[in-house]
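Hello,

Our lab assistant flagged a job as stuck in the queue for most of the afternoon. It eventually completed. Since we weren't sure the result was trustworthy after the delay, we are filing this so someone can double-check. Below is the sequence as submitted and the structure that was eventually returned. Let us know if re-running is recommended.
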Amino acid sequence: MGDRTYYSTMAEYNQWMNRKVYAVCVQLPDETRKKDMGAFFKSIHGTLNHLLYGDRAWMGRFTQQPTSPTRMGEDLYSDFEELHRARIEMDQTIVDWAATLSPEWLSQPFEFTSSVDQKTRTFPTWVLVTTLFNHQTHHRGQLTTLLTQLGYDPGITDLPWLPTLTVDPDADDD
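-- returned structure --
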């Protein structure tokens, strides 16, 4: 899994999907975004914060510039506009960073200490970079469910609809 193209595509997909989700979330009143809807991070706002928390934690590890995030589950930003600006900045940081990845770095062992259980673990770097993108997709799926429950449609969320992907005219359109 040392293919920079894969990670660059996932970074672009992450940015695209976050733009789509935030375009819907900006339409919601603040009290609706912050309402406890029974989600793992309670609300839409809490889940948006957790996504940014996770991205900052992983990017801090990968770039050796650790962040000092709040505890997991605590909001980084109570103000939606500040959260949105931070999300835009982080998404661009991830896109720029993904373009620099090398197969050599991705194949190296990477040691980190989990913020969940405080245990130190070592995995091939590519596994953990993949985890960054998998984590985003997992929690964005929760967000799209919450938005749909409120009657808002985030639109198509599948990777093949990423606008920057080129279309293979010979491929099936399944």
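-- support follow-up --
The delay was a queue issue, not a problem with the job. The result is valid. The helical segments are 4-25, 30-33, 44-63, 80-98, 103-107, 125-149. Strands lie at 109-113, 120-124.
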